[in-house]
Amino acid sequence: MDATEIGLWGVPLAMLGGAIRVSTPFIFVSLGEAITERSGRINLGLEGTLVFGAMTAYAVAVITGSPWLGLIAAAFAGLCFGLFHGWICKFPKVNDIAIGIALMLFGSGLAFFFGKPFIQPSAPDLPAIPFGGWSDIPQVQAALNVNVLFLIGAALAVFLWWAFRNTRAGLIVRVVGDSSDAARAMGLNPNTVRLLATGIGGALAGIGGAYLSLYYPGSWTEGISSGQGLMAVALVIFARWNPLGCFAAALLFGGAGALGPALQSVGVTQGYYLFYAAPYVLTLLIMIATSSPSRSLAGAPGELSITK
Amino acid sequence: MSDRGKKAVGVETIGMTMRFGAFTALEDVSIKAPAGSFHALLGENGAGKSTLVKCMMGFYHPTAGDILVDGREVAIASPKDASALGLGMVYQHFTLVPSLTGAENLVISREKVPGVIDWRKERAELARFMERMPFKLPLDVKVAELAAGEKQKLEIVKQLYLGRSFLVLDEPTSVLTPGEAQEVLGLVRAMTKAGDLTVLMISHKFHEVTAFADDVSVLRKGRLTGTGRVADLDHRQMAAMMIGDQPIAALDSRADPKPDAEIVLKVKALKAPDRTGLKSIRIEDLGVRSGEIVGIAGISGNGQKEFLEVLAGQRTRDAGDVLVKGSPYGASRAEARTFNVRFIPEEPLRNACAPRMTVAENMAFRTFDLNEAGKPINWIKMSAIRTFSARLVEQFKVKTASLASPISSLSGGNVQRAVLARELTGEVDLLIVSNPCFGLDFSAVAEIRARIMKARNAGAAVLLMSEDLDELLELSDRIFVMSDGALVYETPIAQASVQTIGEHMAGHH
Question: How far away is chain A from the Cα of B232, in angstroms, using its nearest Cα?
Fold first, then answer.
C-alpha cells in the first residue's frame, strides 16, 4: 500500500501519530514545570535538564544495554539539576529566572561535553505498544504505535490533577506557591517545599529527555532538543498551571508539530517547511487570543516572580 | 479537628515587660480578660498593643511577667504552645491562601492532615461544624473571590475550627465596611455572651469599643494608662487615656459655601466598565464647585473604586466627559499640573507611591522635574528633592527613620501623611480623595480630616469618597449615594439623615 491510497486521510492520521510521538517530552517537562511553578518558583533550566537527561539516558543505555536503566539515570540526573536550582534559589537576592537561564546553558554544555563519545554507538529503544494491530493499513499501525512513556505521562497528568486537590502534599505545594506568609504561619518552610518541587520537576524533565534519545528521534545528537524545554515552560502558563491542561496543550503542540512532516508524506512538496513553524505560530496566536489588556493572568500562583 | 465542646478560657497577664535592647516597648502591663468576656485594647500606633499580644501568643519572649490561663500560670514559648492552650489570633492582614477554597484553607491549616484527603468525609464534618457557627459562608469558593467581610469571618471561623477558645482580634474591622464590621463584631459578641469564646480586640475605634466590649484597657507608650468597664467610661475619658494631653488637631470651622462658585469638576454621562467587565458604572451628572466638599457614600463594590480609577486615569472610559474648569480632562501629568488636580487614593502605598523608592523621591513625584519657577528641567537635582521633602516631612509630621528609607517601611498613617503632604502642597484647585482614614488611628484621622477641611476653605473643590458615613457627615457640604454603579441620591448636609442615606446605600428606595 502506499500513502496515496488513504489519500488526504493520511494528514490527520499522521498528525495524530505525530501528536502522540512528539508530545511525550512536552508532557513530562510541562508537568514537572507545573509542579515547580505551583510551588512558586519558575525553572527555566529545564531545557538544559532535558538535553542532559537525553545524553545520560543514551549513554547509560549504550553501556548497560538497558533502556530502563537509562531512563532511571536520566531521572536521577534531572533530580540533581532540579535540586541544585532549588538550593541556589533559597538564598536571598537570588533570582530564579536568571539561575534557570544559567542552568539551561550549563546543562546543555555539560551534555555536549560528556556526550561526544556516544554520538556514534546505538542504544536500545524504549518499548512501544502496538495498539494498531486491528488494522492492516500501515499508516494506522504506525500512528497507533504508542510508547509506554506516553501512557505513563497521561496517567501522571490525571494523577497530578487529582493530587493537587486531594492530597496533603498537593495542598501544601499550592499554599506555598500562593503565599509564603500563610505557609510560614502554618509552620511550613517554603524553601524546603520549593526545593523538593523543583527536584521533582527536574526529574520529570530528565525523563522527557530520555524519551528523546531513546525513542523519538531515538539517537543522541547535539541538536536533539529544538527548544522543547523552553516551549514546555510556555505551555504551563498557557495551560493555566492545570496538569490536564498541560497534557492537552502538549498534544496540541505535538499535533501542530507533525503538520509539516504529514503534508510532506502526502506529497505536498512546496512550502511545507512553513508548516514546521506551526507550533510556534499556534503558541503566538493562542497567547494573543487569550490575552486581555484589563485582566491579569487568572490562576497564576501568587508567589511566582513573573506574576508579582 | 479539636473538641469544640470546650468552653471559653480566661486569660490574664501580670506585670508584662518587654525590652528590645535599651528600648522599653512594654512596661509592667497587667490586664485581665475573664472567660466569656469581650475585652478591648485601645492605644495609638506604637503604644505597645501588638507587642503585648505577641508576648501572649508566644512570638516574643517577655523580659518579665507571667501569663495565666484559667487562673493557672503557663509558659508560652512559641505560637504552637499558645494554640495548644486554645489561644489564637486573627491578624489585621488576611492569612488565608487566596487560590484555595475556604474548605481547603480550613483543612490544610489543621495540625494533622491525612496524606490523602477524603473530601466527602471532610465536607460532612465541615458542614456539621458550620451548623454550630452563627453565620453561613460559601466554603467551595476560592478565597480570592470572597468579599472582605467574608474573608474576615472565615479567618475567625478558621480559629474556631482549630479549637481556639480565646481569640485576639487585631483591628478586625480595618478592612471592613461599617455594615460588615457591625455584623462580624455582633456575631463574635454573641459567641462571647454564649460563653463559647473570650475575645481581646485591638482597636482604635471608640464606637466599636462602646458597642461591643465589656471591659477596656488603654495603653500609651508601653504603659497601662487606664482600665475599666466600658459602661463607666465615655469617649472623652478613653481618648484622654489614649493620647494623654497631646493636642488633637481641631477641624477648621467651615467657611460659608458660595452657591455661585465656579464648577471645577464636571462629569457628564460617564460610562465605564466595572471590575468584573460584566456591568458598567454610569455617572449622569456630577459637579463639584470651588470651596465645597462633595461626599460620595456607598457600600464598597458599588462602583466608587471604578469611578475614582476613571478620574485618576487608571481605567479607560467607554463614553462621557470629564471636564475640569470647562476643559476635557484625561488625567495626564500635564493636565493635572495645568489644572492643579490632586489625588489621595485609597491604599496610598499601592496607588500613590512607588513602594521601594525612598520617602524623599516619593514625596517629590509631583515636582521633581520642575525648577522653582515651575518650568521643566533636564537635570534632576537630588539635593533639591531632599530639601523639598525634608520641609514637607517636618510640616506634616511624617515619622520616618530617614528621608532615604523606602516608603514601604513607613506605617500606614505615615504613608498617608507623606502622600497628603505631596498632594496638598502648592496650589490645589481640585482634590479627589478616597477613604483617607482607613485603618488609621485617632490623632492621625483628626489631623487628616483637618487638612482636607483646610484645603476646602482655601478654595479647593473636594470630591470625597468614603465608606465611613461619620466621616462624610463631618466633612461634606453635599452627599451623594452611589449604588449599583450610579449616583442614586443627593442631599445637602443640612437635610442629610443617616436613615435615608443608609436606605439608599442598601438599594431600597
Answer: 39
Would residue A308 count as lying in a domain? Answer: no
pLDDT in tens, A215-270: 988 889 888 888 888 888 888 988 889 999 999 999 988 888 888 777 777 777 77
Q: Which CATH number do you get for residue A113?
A: 1.10.3470
Residue A242, pLDDT score: 92
> In a 10 Å sphere around its CB, with 0-12 CB exposed, 13-18 middle and 19+ buried, how is residue B180 labelled?
buried
Burial A76-106 (b: 16+ CB within 10 A, else e): bbbbbbbbbbbebbeeeeeebeebbeebbeb
Architecture of the B11-243 domain: 3-Layer(aba) Sandwich (3.40)
Number of domains in chain A: 1
Superfamily of chain region B263-340+427-506: P-loop containing nucleotide triphosphate hydrolases (3.40.50.300)
Q: Where are the domains of chain B?
A: 11-243, 263-340+427-506, 358-423
**C-alpha cell of residue B182:** 457591625
Residue A296 belongs to a domain: no
With CA atoms as reference, the chain A residue closest to B89 would be A185
Res. B147: pLDDT tops 80: no
At A84, the pLDDT band (50, 70, 90 cuts) reads very high
Residue B36: name the closest of B56, B57, B11, B9 by CA. B9
Residue with C-alpha cell 501569663?
B67
Closest CA relative to residue A209, chosen from A235, A229, A230, A232? A229
- Contacts B109 to A, Cβ<8 Å: 186
Determine the pLDDT at residue A254: 85
Domain span at residue A94 reads 3-290
Strand partners, B296: B465, B480
Q: What is the structure's pLDDT at B276?
A: 67
Residue A298 falls inside a structural domain: no
Distance CA A40, CA B427 (A): 47
Distances, alpha carbon B496 to alpha carbons A158, A193, B15, in Å? 61, 57, 49
Q: How far apart are CA A128 and CA A48, in angstroms?
A: 26
B228 has which bridge partners? B216
* Distance in angstroms (rounded) separating the CA atoms of residues B405 and B88: 34
A168–B contact, CB cutoff 8 A: yes
B478 Rama sector, left if φ>0, alpha if ψ -120 to 50, beta otherwise: beta
Q: What is the pLDDT of residue B461?
A: 94
CA separation, residue B98 to residues B104, B146, B177 (Å):
11, 9, 20
Torsion on CA atoms B65, B70, B71, B72, rounded to nearest 10: -70
pLDDT score of A18 = 84
**A166 and B119 in contact by Cβ < 8 A?**
yes
Q: Does A262 fall in a domain?
A: yes
ipTM value: 0.84
Q: Across the interface, which of B80, B116, B273 has its CB nearest the CB of A166?
A: B116
Question: How far does Cα A297 stand from its chain's mean position?
Answer: 22
